[in-house]
User: Fold these one by one.
Assistant:
Number 1:
Amino acid sequence: MAEATLKVFRGNSESGEFKTYKVPIEEGMVILDAIHYIQANESPDLAVRWNCKAAKCGSCSAEVNGQPALMCKSRMDRFEPGEEITVQPIKTFPLIKDLVTDVSWNYEVNKKIKAFTPADEGEWIIHQEDIERVQEFRKCIECFLCQNVCHVLRDHDRKDQFMGPRFLVRTAGLEMHPKDTANRMEYLKDEGHIGYCNITKCCTEVCPEDIHITDNAIIPLKERVVDEFYDPVAKFFKGILGGKK
């Protein structure tokens, strides 16, 4: 049986190193299968976070050969025979142990976003195009791969200010809902600091759900912030219309 060579990061926030493992390859295997083999046969203390193995829970985020990915979606047969495969934790968030990072910061950011605030109660009549507009954003599985590759969070460590692409997506899903009345523009500008995003589209490239994060969420929100705070004509007409979205 063919074997794959995996170099898996082992360690914690204080120290660590890559350890080499040999894993027999079976048809249909993914990286997560290989990690489970290592746990079962060589290192039962190898820490990894996972749940569904169906690319829907977002738990098994890692960096495979330096590329952010879900381990359950990274097929072993896409690597060349004999190619060494490195598996390490995502880098933007504090390391707990081995492949597990502390992503709790994200949930604290989530609490700061104004909740869905409908215009009225009772029966809603919503056009199909309005449903389709926000439905894409509901696909997010919170794997936080987009947060991991965001240069503001990863390279500049501005988690003290920037909310990151995942929560720009959530905000877009709320702001673009036809029945929502809350205004989140001030938060986006002053606390979420949407202006820090320079639209590199790296977040879109790694999204396992193929959400068009930059084009459909971030850019429209940026335009709304500009209209709200920097466009005198838009501010004039907004005053006439009474601040409607």
Note: The longest helix spans residues 213-229.
Number 2:
Amino acid sequence: MKSEVTNAFEALEDLQMRNRVKQLEGENAELQRQNAELMERCKTLASRAPAWPKGYRPTRKAMDDRKRHYNERRPN
């Protein structure tokens, strides 16, 4: 009797593990598909040229002798 109960529990555990493995394999396949889509989106976004807002003109300011960077200041 005891061996039959043990075999039944082992069979139940085996069935539960197989179902869990199938569930995890399905989730893994879905994550792989989403990862491939995101990689493609990142590739297209990274390869396109930057677009500045309309009317924006980046300018470079000339540095005067009076103005120094913070790390170049000397105490008087």
Note: Residues 25-49 form one domain.
